[in-house]
Amino acid sequence: MTLLIVRIEDTRTHQTEQRILGDWHKCMKAGVLIGSDAVCHVHLTGSQVAERHARYYALSHHRFLDILDDSAVVRFPGSDSAARKGDYLRVDYRPFMIGPYVLTFGEQREPG
Fold first, then answer.
1. How does pLDDT run across 49-107, given as a tens digit for each residue?
2. What is the dihedral of CA 14, 16, 87, 50, to 10 degrees?
3. From CA 12, how far away is CA 45, in angstroms rounded?
4. Global pTM?
5. Given strand 96-98, what is the order of strands in its sheet?
6. Helix count (H) and strand count (E) of the chain?
7. Which CATH architecture group holds 2-109?
């Protein structure tokens, strides 16, 4: 089985963690909610993180990000441009920023 993973770096503390989100197919079918709400699959804290900030999902062989909240902003490391609700974002496996966090999604084969 292939697992969906996310690497999260907090740019304030430079601490990094990797989370296993579950079966890749199940996660991609439903989409992965990212935000400060406790029901989000990727729960982040801070004033720059909306309750339901974004949804990461797959279409065909690409990965996309829907920005869900009017106050939500997504940036790419090293870029001054910002995306907001209504912007079409194809992110694939590139890192992106929500508030002070850099998120990078990936895949990992389950051992065994």
1. 999 999 999 998 899 999 999 999 999 998 988 999 988 799 998 999 999 999 999 99
2. -80
3. 12
4. 0.93
5. 15-23, 2-10, 101-109, 96-98, 73-75, 82-84
6. 1, 11
7. Sandwich (2.60)
